[in-house]
Amino acid sequence: MEILANFAQGLSIVLQPENLMYCFIGVFLGTFIGVLPGIGSLAAIAMILPLSFYLDPTSALVMIAGVYYGAEYGGSIASILMNIPGTPAASITCIDGYPLAKKGRAGVALFSTAIASFGGGMIGMLVMAVLAPSLAQLALSFGPPDYFAVILLGLVAASAVSNGGALKGITMVVLGLMLGSIGIDLTTGDQRFTMGIPELRDGIHIVIVAMGLFGVSELIASIRDNKKGSATQSIDYNDFYPSKSEWKSLFSPILRGGAIGSFFGALPGTGQTIAAAIAYAVEKRISPQKKKFGTGVLPAVAVPEAANNSATQTAFIPTLTLGVPGSPPMALVIGALMIHGITPGPRLLTEAPDMFWGLIASFLIGNIMLLILNIPLIGIWVRLLQIPYKYMYPTIIVLICMGVYSLNNNVFDIWLTLIIGAIGYVMRLYKFEPAPLLIGFVLGPLMEEHLRRSMLLSRGDAMVFFERPISATLIAITVGILAFTAYKSISNYRRFKTSSSQLTK
Amino acid sequence: MSLQNEKIDAVECSNTVSDPSVWFGATGGIILFIVSIIFIVGGIGLGLGSPFRLGTGAFPFITGMILGALSLAICFYELRGDGLASTPDWIGFCAICSALAVFALTAEKLGLVPAAFLTVFVASLPDRSLSLVGKIILGSCVGAVCWILFIELLNLPFKPFVGL
């Protein structure tokens, strides 16, 4: 019952006109950017961050969260209508979404994804409301070595599943840690790697890193791909609502997708794309319509959408209770909170309950807003997809410049964004995923601080990490993940060697 | 299933092994190795401190060592030829980078409206489907919207025009 009371308290905060407005701005902009193919939720959050610094922390968090899950709703629109996933997680939705659109059932598909996203979001919200407080309770007993171990686990888990392979992922995390150490060392006050540039004294701003790595480099990558065409499908509003039997066929896939998504969303390093892929794979095995999967059936669109949206909500559990982001967008959330002077961690729930429960309640309100934006107002988004990209991307570039400039009113930041963006694009070409770098960048300073504190407490004895039960367990898991990925990549390499020697014979 | 995968892998590998990008991939490893040296040397210069009281340079030193090891692994691993993620779009790359540079150069000297106009114009240069007049119109529209949105509504400390 305590949860209900807390939830009601949160609801009263979100229903304040101001927060309601920022929640709406968040989900609207999120959907807007999510609809645009090639630009994902990370770029969307990066673009909204500078604006969020002017708000009070709760409004800022509600708005950023809205952008995050709004982008997932929007991502499915482009994938159904154009077979281009608006966000990576929506690529699973393409598999059955586009065939449905080709059959002339785009309307039903869009309706089902909106309902499924809503259902998944609500499941994720419930899981968060129930689990987060107990996890925070557990985390209250964490000491610096335990935090160090949690961060280490988060970093390794996030990089081991990176698209470009584990080795490159871990390299990017380490590079992020190093990038994060630029600026004044808070413990000693000495400058590190600032090369005498005064603008670097406070370190590189997280918005610059995120805008460069995601905004600029995604924009470059999407220019050519988007010339290919725009949505030509028109939606028949008469064929918008699923039939009674179709409604029934959606119910349990949404529940299953939501449950699978909640689980994977809360794990560090997995995130919505993996959640959606696994939920789809599971459904493909157990669905009564499994033989038709891939040809355009409604449960096959509903499942990944329910999963990715519930994962979006549960990703906040480790972020807010431990201060360790499970996914790159959550790293931005942590960065934003720290700029507001709030360090996410187990004390957040007791010290800022209004913010925590306000956020949870905003999931309900935001998802209802998205339902309205995505069902009666779907026409707006379809029309948006018909605007040629050639008008879009130059405008987005100006918005990026404005966002970066407004941080410090300094053009140096724009030059820095340009450099990071250029490096980010080249990195992408060589399959170095920039997302793990961002996680490393955000967690680097925290990791260093906990490392120093642990060493201080143990009087310089590194064994402290292996003696405490919590940190020892976490480090064991980390080593396990590392050993497994190393084993896998070495066996892949061997396989490649034998297969290539066979080819040359 | 796994057999099939192996076959596909083998075909893919045989296609990329002669690709010149293999060497570029290894170059990435070398660049990372240089970065790691900078951090290791820099870390030592800043002071490593003692295990009890870690110094300013300790964390850069440790991460530098790890990156050094990883970058060597990448040099080795890349020689198997992972290939490029996609064909590079250098025209788009130059256009976007120049657009950012133009904004950085003009925002304070000319003011927000001309800066936005020029940025849009430069960014849209590689797009042949948009005519010159179209680019000018688009630039003017974005400039005007920025003026209204950022200066009039959000009160950001920008001047719409400088020196007029």
Proportion of residues in extended strands of chain B? under 5%
User: Taking strands numbered 1, 2, ... along the chain, how are they ordered across the largest sheet of chain A?
Assistant: 1-2
Using the alpha-carbon principal axes, give the shape of chain B: flat
The tally of domains of chain B stands at 2
Helix coverage percent of chain A: over 70%
Q: Name the structural class of chain A.
A: mainly alpha
Using only CA atoms, what is the Rg of chain B?
Answer: 25 Å
Biggest beta-sheet profile of chain B: none
Total number of distinct structural domains of chain A: 1
Give me the count of strands of chain A: 2
Counting H and I runs of at least 4 residues, what is the number of helices of chain A?
A: 22
Following the backbone from N to C, one meets helices and strands of chain A in this order, namely: HHHHHHHHEEHHHHHHHHHHHHHH
Structural class of chain B: mainly alpha
Total DSSP helices of chain B: 6
Number of strands of chain B: 0
> Which whole number gives the mean pLDDT of chain B?
79
Radius of gyration of chain A: 22 Å
Oligomer: heterodimer
